[in-house]
Specification:
The complex is a heterodimer of chains A (267) and B (332). Chain A is of the alpha/beta class and 267 residues long. Chain A contains ten helices and twelve strands. A six-stranded mixed sheet of chain A has the order 6-7-8-3-9-10, sandwiched between helices. A four-stranded antiparallel sheet of chain A has the order 2-1-4-5, covered by helices on one side. In chain A, strand 1 and strand 2 form a beta hairpin. The termini of chain A are far apart. Chain B is mostly helical. In chain B, 76% of the residues lie in helices and 0% in strands. In chain B, helix 1 runs parallel beside helix 13, helix 5 packs antiparallel against helix 11 and helix 8 runs antiparallel to helix 11. Chain B starts with a helix and ends with a helix. Classes of the chains: A alpha/beta (267), B mainly alpha (332).
């Protein structure tokens, strides 16, 4: 499915957002190539979700956003929806619609297609995300992880080649998380451009090819995922130390560990 | 356990039964004797007028209920939350008072259309105020609050007119009858005025069935999937206003139909608007037809006001649905 090499990838230049007088993103530059997963990482409040919403065209911002070599902000709402799919961390959908209907919503902008075309696109999305067995279930009866997979299926059903995902594994258990990682890797292999917000730095290395570290609304460092996740800025931005012999694992700095030990001994 | 398709078929069988049964009861039940060779045909014509008027008014309110509940993503929303119902009611009351006290004004509009025209003007004024105040608002909260304020304002203004109209016995009686709702004496001209608007509203609602499904995920997700949310919101507001104005213009102030009917139908036909919109249209019509039949059957001198009957049926029914929904843990 996905494959759209023309002017592949996403490129953001000088993206700036302010809410009133409060600056949220300062001149953010980064590239997310097609056929790869790019992770946005950073501490809470660093602007990851805001950046994702800008890229999805849901938030006014300054700067330029090029997707597939075109200025995405010139697209109509319909064209945008056909080329860029956005999956929020938590959906507001709290209605017992059947899963098949929810995934079918991804075809909303393809009003004139035949029912066969529609069904094929929905079936492909259900199959890729592994939720075909849930089609008759009501959305509200699903677990958090299943809901995330159904929303990913809805995003894929749009036919968009750029996927913007906000913490797609946050509600998944370990096996579902690995399944999601495999699904996303498969989509990247099929030439999708995937930009996702990730909180767990170990997942960054498992899923992502590239990573962008945001700190206080600006890019602190970007590059190959394994390097960014282990880079000194990650330690300073998150205020943690890397455990060298434990692969990619972290601990609190020595001073804070002392505080923790003191608290434990008091109890 | 039945499939959704079987449930839908069952729902339509029930709706058909309710509508046909209601129509038969509405034509049969009343003060006059249909077997009377002299007056029978006139009784039948009068009852047919009531039947069609109540069906059209109920269908308009049922459809408006689905639209407004979809717009606010809240199955407990009623068409009256926008303030246009109170605007229409005030317009109708004002028309009664103005035309009732001034012969010169009355000559401009045919007598039977004075109140309906007043309702549409009142709803239009409320709609214009609503859109002006909320034109730069993001989300539905401003809409809800403005609607609440408008409702309070127009209800107060209507109360003032009710109070003033009591100085003339006949006018006071007409105003009270209008505010309590009723289809007594309504006929083809009233239905002819409202029906095109109601059918157009049904068509518009049907055209937005997919948009409304997507809005259940919230404005942001709907936008990301291609819905132009501000445009949909604007037109839904306009059509809810038109539908409620049409209903008030022919049936007076009748509550609970737009709230209860979609709410009661969801557990049977599902939450998808493609099934819900036509079902609420027919269900709303059938509900008001039966309410009108009950208004005639009540053991009182004369008839019960229609708004009183819908309140007596609607409020307990709504509470029952709410309790059942809470017990099953389903947001019905």
């Amino acid at each position: 499915m996905i494959v759209d090499r023309a002017g592949a990838g996403l490129s953001a230049r000088a993206v700036t957002v302010s809410f009133g007088a409060t600056p949220i993103l300062h001149s953010v530059d980064f590239d997310a190539p097609a056929g790869a997963v790019t992770a946005l990482i950073g501490p809470n409040g660093s602007g990851k979700t805001t950046l994702l919403r800008c890229l999805a065209g849901l938030l006014e911002c300054e700067g330029t956003i090029q997707i597939g070599g075109e200025d995405s902000r010139r697209w109509s709402r319909q064209e945008h929806a056909q080329r860029v799919a956005y999956v929020p961390q938590r959906t507001l959908l709290d209605t017992p619609l059947p899963v098949l209907s929810v995934v079918g919503q991804g075809r909303f902008t393809r009003g004139r297609e035949s029912s066969t075309e529609r069904r094929e696109a929905v079936d492909r999305a259900l199959e890729v995300t592994g939720v075909a067995a849930l089609v008759d279930r009501a959305f509200t009866t699903l677990s958090g992880g299943e809901r995330q997979r159904v929303l990913l299926a809805r995003a894929l059903a749009t036919g968009a080649t750029t996927l913007l995902l906000d913490e797609p594994t946050s509600a998944q258990d370990i096996s579902q998380s690995l399944l999601m990682a495999r699904t996303l890797r498969g989509l990247a292999t099929a030439d999708a451009t995937i930009v996702m917000v990730v909180h767990d730095l170990r997942e960054v290395r498992q899923i992502a090819d590239h990573a962008v570290l945001l700190d206080g609304g600006a890019v602190s460092v970007s590059g190959p995922a394994h390097r960014v996740a282990a880079a000194p800025p990650v330690r300073s931005v998150f205020g943690v130390e890397l455990l060298e012999k434990a692969g990619l694992d972290f601990r609190l700095p020595a001073a804070e560990e002392c505080t923790e030990r003191a608290l434990e001994s008091e109890q | 356990m039945s499939t959704p398709r079987q449930q839908l078929a069952l729902a339509w069988a029930l709706l058909t039964l309710l509508t046909v049964g209601g129509a038969a009861a509405s034509l049969q039940i009343g003060a006059g004797d249909l077997a009377d060779s002299g007056l029978g045909p006139m009784f039948l014509r009068l009852r047919a007028g009531r039947l069609f008027t109540s069906f059209v008014a109920g269908a308009a309110l049922g459809t408006a209920g689905v639209l407004v509940q979809g717009l606010f993503r809240n199955p407990l929303a009623s068409p009256s939350v926008l303030g246009t119902t109170a605007g229409a009611s005030f317009g109708g009351t004002a028309a009664l008072v103005a035309f009732g006290s001034s012969g010169a004004v009355a000559s401009v509009v045919p007598p039977e259309l004075q109140v309906p025209v007043g309702c549409f003007v009142g709803a239009l004024v409320a709609l214009l105020v609503l859109l002006t105040v909320t034109r730069r608002a993001v989300g539905s909260l401003a809409l809800l609050l403005t609607g609440f304020v408008l409702s309070s304002l127009f209800l107060s203004a209507s109360s003032l007119l009710v109070s003033l109209s009591q100085e003339t016995w006949q006018l006071g009686r007409a105003v009270i009858a209008f505010t309590l709702g009723g289809v007594d004496g309504k006929g083809a001209r009233h239905v002819g005025l409202a029906l095109p608007i109601v059918l157009a509203g049904l068509g518009a609602a049907w055209g937005w069935r997919h948009h409304l499904d997507l809005l259940l995920s919230g404005d942001e997700e709907a936008t990301s999937l291609g819905v132009r949310v501000p445009v949909v919101r604007l037109w839904v507001i306009v059509w809810v206003s038109a539908l409620t104005a049409a209903a008030v213009s022919i049936g007076g102030s009748v509550g609970f139909v737009g709230l209860v009917v979609p709410h009661a139908l969801r557990p049977i036909v599902g939450h998808g608007h493609a099934a819900l919109i036509p079902a609420a249209f027919v269900g709303g019509g059938a509900f008001l037809v039966w309410a009108d039949v009950l208004a005639r059957l009540a053991p009182t001198q004369g008839e019960l006001p229609l708004g009183v009957v819908t309140g007596f049926i609607g409020a307990p029914l709504f509470l029952g649905l709410l309790i059942a929904g809470n017990r099953s843990g389903v947001n019905a």
